[in-house]
Amino acid sequence: MSMELILKYFPDLSEEQRRQFAALYELYAEWNAKINVVSRKDFDQLYLRHVLHSLAIAKVCSFEPGAEILDVGCGGGFPSVPLAILFPEAHFIAADSIRKKITVVEGVVAGLGLKNIEPRCTRVEQIPNHFDYVVSRAVTAMPEFVEWIWHKIRRGQRGTLPNGILYLKGGDLAEELALTGKHWTLYDIASFFEEEFFETKKVVYTRK
Description:
Layout: H1 3-9, H2 15-34, H3 40-43, H4 46-60, E1 68-72, H5 80-86, E2 91-96, H6 99-112, E3 117-121, E4 133-137, H7 142-149, E5 164-170, H8 174-178, E6 185-188, E7 201-207
Helix pairs in contact: 2-6, 4-5
């Protein structure tokens, strides 16, 4: 599983985007050998389980030039690094409170020459900025997550959906989402990508 998987679903990439997506494997392999952010058993599935999974958000919402996006608990840079490659005119902050994870993101971003993503080692509560969208991948229970970031999202629309939260999550979510008091739309990733890995995975969205 490699670049072909990305091109299967995103055939219109520029040469620069193709170069950057192709470079991800070596960069993550190099950094993962020093600081383990992607599990060893998972690593050969990097493009499927991490890169393409991150890009499911792009099948739900395209970000406009100038849109500002926060990735909360970015880990090794997912979903923000693949999204920053895909949307070079949007601006991303990749935030995680664990320094070694941000070290990896900094190394990957530098290796790719990505100018539109800023890795920050911080707790999300300490970020003063406001954003058009908040993205994340299963960092905590939704009620807690919404409490952390709701006031950081500005109203408006800087993409194909109104500003809000785009969250990657799997399994049965009804009860957890109900506890947030928000109205959520669930998008089955399996309707975008045919690989078995995505069968139970979703992008969940709520607007500000």
